[in-house]
């Protein structure tokens, strides 16, 4: 029963992490313009994401523009896009595989060993999905920090971490932790011995057989 609760907890955590990865990928706030230092405070906030750049006015109005050409983007941004999309697709596969191996589901009830292996395999897929998202967000964050501390970067062109990065880091951690719980939720296989068979007594063997 305890292993079933751990399995359910792992799936919920991994699923929420996968949803967070989708939200982080779609958000435009991967980096936001920094107004620290001698830079004057402007009436708008600038954001850049994987798919578009946005400007939010002081009135609350947001204007976004989708990137015109994929080929004009930096290679690091294209790689981040690819890793996040791959993380989402791999996580989708992990959802279906893990659901099949859940003890609360009626699928494959006739073969508990295969059902247990499906749950473990789903956990491994979730871990891979989380690692892909963690690499993508960490790589993007490292590039933002490197450009921020670069002395050759103009003050008015410096960016800081956006909220999408923090959501991506939290979601990737949830997916990895939930996948680990799925892998550890199955009980160890105990060595089963065949039942001892009672040997039939020989009908002719009585006390008279002793010499």
TrEMBL record:
<dbReference type="GO" id="GO:0005198">
    <property type="term" value="F:structural molecule activity"/>
</dbReference>
<keyword id="KW-0965">Cell junction</keyword>
<dbReference type="GO" id="GO:0005923">
    <property type="term" value="C:bicellular tight junction"/>
</dbReference>
<keyword id="KW-1133">Transmembrane helix</keyword>
<dbReference type="InterPro" id="IPR004031">
    <property type="entry name" value="PMP22/EMP/MP20/Claudin"/>
</dbReference>
<feature type="transmembrane region" description="Helical">
    <location>
        <begin position="161"/>
        <end position="184"/>
    </location>
</feature>
<keyword id="KW-0796">Tight junction</keyword>
<keyword id="KW-0472">Membrane</keyword>
<comment type="function">
    <text>Claudins function as major constituents of the tight junction complexes that regulate the permeability of epithelia.</text>
</comment>
<feature type="transmembrane region" description="Helical">
    <location>
        <begin position="7"/>
        <end position="27"/>
    </location>
</feature>
<dbReference type="InterPro" id="IPR017974">
    <property type="entry name" value="Claudin_CS"/>
</dbReference>
<comment type="similarity">
    <text>Belongs to the claudin family.</text>
</comment>
<feature type="transmembrane region" description="Helical">
    <location>
        <begin position="79"/>
        <end position="99"/>
    </location>
</feature>
<feature type="transmembrane region" description="Helical">
    <location>
        <begin position="119"/>
        <end position="141"/>
    </location>
</feature>
<keyword id="KW-0812">Transmembrane</keyword>
<protein>
    <recommendedName>
        <fullName>Claudin</fullName>
    </recommendedName>
</protein>
<dbReference type="Pfam" id="PF00822">
    <property type="entry name" value="PMP22_Claudin"/>
</dbReference>
<dbReference type="InterPro" id="IPR006187">
    <property type="entry name" value="Claudin"/>
</dbReference>
<dbReference type="GO" id="GO:0005886">
    <property type="term" value="C:plasma membrane"/>
</dbReference>
<keyword id="KW-1003">Cell membrane</keyword>
<dbReference type="InterPro" id="IPR003548">
    <property type="entry name" value="Claudin1"/>
</dbReference>
């Amino acid at each position: 029963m305890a292993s079933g609760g751990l399995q359910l907890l792992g799936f919920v955590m991994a699923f929420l992490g996968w949803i967070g990865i989708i939200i982080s990928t779609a958000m435009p706030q991967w980096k936001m313009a920094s107004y620290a230092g001698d830079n004057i405070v402007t009436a708008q906030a600038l954001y850049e994401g994987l798919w578009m750049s946005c400007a939010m006015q002081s009135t609350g109005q947001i204007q976004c523009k989708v990137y015109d050409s994929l080929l004009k983007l930096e290679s690091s941004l294209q790689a981040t896009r690819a890793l996040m999309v791959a993380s989402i697709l791999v996580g989708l596969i992990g959802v279906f595989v893990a659901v099949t191996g859940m003890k609360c589901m009626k699928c494959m009830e006739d073969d508990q060993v295969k059902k247990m292996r499906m749950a473990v395999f789903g956990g491994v897929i979730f871990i891979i999905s989380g690692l892909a998202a963690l690499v993508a967000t960490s790589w993007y964050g490292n590039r933002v920090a490197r450009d921020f501390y670069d002395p050759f970067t103009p003050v008015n062109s410096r960016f800081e971490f956006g909220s999408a990065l923090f959501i991506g880091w939290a979601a990737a951690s949830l997916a990895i932790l939930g996948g680990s719980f799925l892998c550890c939720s199955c009980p160890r296989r105990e060595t089963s011995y065949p039942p001892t068979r009672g040997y039939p007594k020989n009908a002719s063997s009585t006390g008279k057989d002793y010499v």
